[in-house]
Amino acid sequence: EVIAGFARIYPKDDKFKEIFADKELPVENSRNKKVARYILCELEHDASGNRPDYEDGDISLEHVCPVNPEQGWDQLVDRDIDLISARIGNMTLLAQAANREIGNGSYEGKLSAYRESSYKITSSLADSYPQWNLESVANRQKKMAQKACAIWRIEQLS
Known about the structure:
By secondary structure, the protein is mainly alpha-helical. It has helices at residues 2-7, 13-21, 30-48, 78-85, 96-102, 107-116, 120-128, 134-151; strands at residues 59-63, 91-95. A two-stranded antiparallel sheet has the order 1-2. The chain is globular, with a radius of gyration of 16 Å.
């Protein structure tokens, strides 16, 4: 009975991936910030086998394209930045000190910090995405959706 009850609200894999691929989490809301950190920590666990604690104060939520970018983001117009900033595909994990150091700088300026990151989901950004734009965010988020579907799948309901 429990499984049948959950089956009514449990989304099929394709629907889950579709919803996840479009997911936005504006982090001005502290609950969304926790949710984003939790999701990214679980994706990191899947990628590396290490399970960071999403409540660890040394882990920061890095916006690849900053909410308030400085110089170096001229390829994106304000409308694009608004579309990108809250997408989970635009977010990654980074140590607090590294995040403070790179600030709201350009993508190219952030790449060395990403490469040196102990978080696999972050270090892989540099090699996977030579540029950061709307297409990069959408592609990364679709890949994240694939992983997320496997992470949170309940076999009895799939």
